[in-house]
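Handout, page 2. Input:
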Amino acid sequence: MKIRKMTAKDIPAVIKIESESYENAISESELFSEIRNKSNGTESPILAPIVTCDDLGDVVGYAMFDRADEAKSVLTLLVISTAKSNRREGVASGMVGYIKKKMKTLKCESITARVHQDRIPAQNFLAKSGFDCSGIDVTEVNEKECEIYNFNYSVPMDDLSARHIAKIAKQCREARAAKEE
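Output:
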């Protein structure tokens, strides 16, 4: 399996996977629009829509993630999906591993994901991938109240750079000093 950036020629395969995975699948034009809108600054840019290809070069999974916070320290996993015929083969796990490595390269502190209450396999997958459920939001979807589960993966402490730890220590000292004034 090989993970690489998504290209325009991958879109039909991604749409097929999307339609296998979601009841309200995104259309080809919506996907192009979503990537284009996020890339031209109207929203936070998608860093790199990625695909996983099998040994024949066929797309068997895809994921999209971006930096959602102002400090650019958090990656948000927007979507991750695997072709029905390739589930339970490590495709999604490989993409999460890729995103975790990207997180370290970009010096991000965590990855977040939001999962609908009915997507129990996705919730279980994230939990098995080292994500913790950090909260539940109640929201309205299609005029029906539902729960959205918030998942978070943080960089293990031994992976944080000494510079980052020093920065946090300095912020703590400054906060203590401000409190004492």
